[in-house]
Amino acid sequence: MTNAWLTSLSLVESMIPVLGQLGREQNVKVQLAGKSLLADSVTSLMTVFDQYPEIDLAQIVELLNELKDSNASNTVVDLEALIAENELDAILQTSVDSGEQTPVVLYGFGRIGRLLARRMCSIGHTTPSMKLAAIVVRKAGDKDLKKRASLLKYDSVHGTYDGLVKVDADQQTLIINGQPVKIIYASHPSEVDYQAHGIDGALLVDNTGIWRDHDGLSVHLQRPGIERVVLTAPGKQMKNIVFGVNDADIDSQDQILSAASCTTNAITPILSVLENKYGVESGHVETVHAYTNDQNLIDNVHKGDRRGRAAAMNMVITETGAAKAVSKAIPALEGKLSGSAIRVPVINVSIAVLSLNLKAETSVEEINALLKDASASSELTGQIAYSDAPDAVSSDFIGCENAGILDSQSTKVRGKQATLYVWYDNEYGYSCQVVRLMERLSQVGLQVKQEEQNQAA
To answer: Which segments in the chain show pLDDT lower than 50?
Structure first.
């Protein structure tokens, strides 16, 4: 090994305990251009820093120690902004010093629910201002608790969870990396009194998709202990938030919000960059999507056209509302995009094909450079990734925490016409987006409480 590599390795190794203390004791999440710096692995940190060879790792170590010695708590700090401003006090003005954490309730524990739990409870990962308190499910037999633990620990797509999952049958809890999470059995939101379980002021994330309008989700708010609700699907009569694009629209009065869909989250950040640079005249979004649990594995009756045919054997033409939903985050694109979808026999990772008519001429090189710069910036935190791998295929992007990944090798441009291919992990990448939205809502809620306490004092 070269001396330079060994020096870098030594510096990165020294970051692990500092990042661990920041997360464990101060509830501070550290990012670099939107990429989380986790205290779980030297390799993962080296991989992140390898993308930014111009960064002085010795300076990063110094900044992290300065951050550790500060009074920072319950906040997200992006090192790119810290390096640029070189003023720690200005960065820390956004921190919340109440010492409180918002309890989180996951209503539903399917594909997205379990990945949210994995993300929130990962060793080395910090979710500022919030903690996973409970999971609400319908009981599936006497061995339900053990089965829930097993499904969290072992996953056919994302592999074995790198953490400790234990069952406390007496307390009816899962203990995830030492953190007790109550399992509440209920068939309907109206059956649950969260305060009776010691949960108050909670953020509830509805992963079932059963209720998608404001009135339906309001049932959660009527239950003791619930303060805000997030829907992990496109919602009606509420704000649909794509974190990194329109999360500034969130205010303290918002009690029910939608995190939109996985496809909407994948394409909206890239479309926002293109709209700002060139302007989008019109376009079509075709998503080639992994099959999902709402399809039949073998041919049978289904309420949706074609989705009743065997998912693992067929390409299935269906519909998507993602193109229309983009305008909820980017109003300038209202009525300009159409969309359709094809479900294909892969279990995870999808790709969206954006066929766009721009208002100005461009080139492959210019668009790729524009989106590569966007992927390296903290402005779209964790939203856009950039791939120039010549042999990239869908499985390469399993576990990617970005909302969407531009396949730069496939970009096509002819004058004002551009075709872009955007990969996305429709499970984990979307779950990371939901967690980012949850973090923002938790911080908003704690800031409101802090202001109320200051006024009362």
So the answer is: none
